[in-house]
Design a protein that fits this description.
Structural class: alpha+beta
Number of strands: 8
Largest sheet: 5 strands, antiparallel
Order of helices and strands: HEHHEEEHHEEEE
Helix content: 40-55%
Shape: elongated
């Protein structure tokens, strides 16, 4: 799995700065409750001539209930853990960018020198010959980068995971 190496490197940071946690189910529950409230609101709102308001509330409420219920079930059943940054009390975001083979040396140099601005300036592509995986905090205090190369049905880590701390 392409995220596994980067997560293991983050969890190995000293003093438990990044720890694995399950995402909470509070937001999906709030979405479902909001959907139920919208459905109940259709009872108390006076009918309009064309019924568009009632229909919008029913569709919106139904969509929120369905979304909240599905996400809640996935989070209950799934035992996956994601990186959680304890000093900022927030989950880290994950991003992948794709590049062609001709950008290989430029990417390796940017990651080796921990030059994040240079990495951002390299032109991306729709071809995933090279993939830069990034996991970062909201404030950018910790950024973990890994460069993968696609080789016959799998992504291979080119070099070790690089962690940039500010």
């Amino acid at each position: 799995m392409i995220r596994q190496e980067i997560c293991e490197a983050l969890y190995a940071l000293p003093n438990g700065v990044v720890e694995p946690r399950r995402r909470p189910i509070t937001k999906p529950i709030i979405s479902a409750i909001t959907g139920i409230a919208l459905l109940i609101a259709t009872i108390f709102i006076p009918s309009t001539k064309d019924g568009m308001l009632e229909m919008a509330l029913i569709v919106g409420g139904g969509a929120l209930i369905l979304y909240g219920w599905c996400v809640m079930m996935v989070r209950i059943i799934n035992n996956d853990k994601v990186p959680y940054h304890t000093p900022t009390k927030s989950y880290m975001s994950y991003r992948e960018r794709f590049y062609t083979h001709d950008k290989s040396e430029e990417l390796k140099a940017a990651i080796a020198t921990k030059d994040y601005n240079r990495l951002e300036s390299i032109e991306t592509s729709n071809i995933s010959a090279l993939t830069v995986t990034e996991c970062r905090t909201k404030d950018g205090s910790i950024v973990a980068l890994a460069l993968y190369e696609y080789a016959i049905y799998e992504d291979i880590l080119v070099d070790k995971v690089t962690i940039i701390r500010s």
